[in-house]
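Tokens help. One example:
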Amino acid sequence: MPIKQAAQELNVGLTLLKKRCRVLGIPRWPHRKVKSLETLIKNVQEIGKETGQDEDQTRNVVEKLQQTKKMIEQRPDAKLDDRTMMLRQACFKENYKRRRLLAIER
């Protein structure tokens, strides 16, 4: 959940929540990272179905991404590994190509 929503639900100000998080060792709120991983999981599943990739391979990648998501939820300061970053960039590129093709067809 976004940090503003968390602050509202806890009935505290945004600044106070940020200060408390930093005291507890959470330098950044992990919502965007978690949301990015959720989108990446969805994209990998869609691309796997469209391209007809091996289901086992797609399932393995999705499982690794879900493990990474759980790790981020437990340790918000953890960084994404290089493979996840490369996969995310490849998905961004694939989505860009799709949008471009749709724009050309119109």
Summary: The chain has one domain: 30-105. The radius of gyration is 17 Å. The first helix runs from residue 3 to 10. The mean pLDDT is 89.
